[in-house]
Design a protein that fits this description.
By secondary structure, this protein is an alpha+beta fold. Helices cover 26% and strands 29% of the residues. It is globular, with a radius of gyration of 17 Å.
Length: 235
């Protein structure tokens, strides 16, 4: 059995009373594997946070067979369906989406928007979302999801909204991810873009995931099952 440690954290740009975090994230256990989701509700229009929440809930409620779980076209179709559902939703706006399914040591998924997913390894980094369409976003009715995988889960898997990717240099992200325990990486990444004032340049959400595949690796890590951490701003 593959063992996964997964941690996520989310924080809003400012602690002002009227502020609301439009980022959403989830780590979902399934009989067939683990599903990681990040969604960043679009600012500048109404209903961004509702769109992100709708996407998360839709993925939680979707029944996916064992065979379909490891097929990237499954997640393409689900995102495509969510795009049309959000388009006709009376309250929801638009959102980004990154979905990564982990099953039997492999990852696959689909995405749209400007949130990102990377597989960071000692010698090479793979940007899973490199070819995604940043616009139109989910909820526009004309979004075009992009698929990736299946590829082996080797190294550390990172999902992040643009609140991190726009403001942290890639070399700094890589250094934090590869040179710290997976349990502390999400918090350190968010802190790396925090202003001296205590605010952030944008809402930031990060999921960090690592596979432990051998008995020795399991015994050397205290947390070997799925773990999720988030601060009070998360949903």
């Amino acid at each position: 059995m593959t063992n996964i440690s997964s941690f996520f954290k989310t924080d809003l740009a400012t602690a002002a009373a009227h502020s609301e975090n439009q980022d959403r994230a989830a780590v979902i256990e399934s009989p067939h594997g683990i599903l990681l989701i990040i969604a960043d509700g679009a600012g500048g229009m109404s209903g961004g946070e509702k769109a992100a929440e709708f996407l998360i809930q839709s993925l939680k409620e979707h029944f996916v067979s064992e065979e379909a779980f490891s097929n990237p076209l499954t997640w393409y179709n689900i995102l495509n369906q969510a795009d049309h559902q959000l388009y006709v939703h009376p309250l929801a706006g638009e959102t980004t989406a990154v979905v990564v399914a982990i099953s039997d040591g492999f990852i696959c998924g689909a995405s749209v928007g400007d949130s990102s997913a990377f597989l960071l390894q000692d010698n090479i980094d793979i940007e899973l979302t490199a070819k995604q369409w940043q616009k139109p976003r989910l909820g526009s009715g004309i979004a075009i999801p992009t698929t990736y995988g299946p590829i082996p889960l080797t190294g550390i898997l990172l999902l992040a909204t643009d609140g991190l990717m726009k403001y942290a240099p890639p070399a700094k992200i890589r250094d934090i991810v590869l040179n710290n325990h997976v349990e502390s990486v999400a918090n350190q990444l968010i802190e790396s873009v925090r202003y001296p004032s205590g605010n952030l340049p944008d809402d930031v959400t990060v999921i960090v995931c690592q596979k432990y595949g051998t008995k020795r690796e399991l015994e050397s890590n205290e947390k070997t099952t799925i773990n999720t951490t988030k601060n009070h701003a998360g949903h």
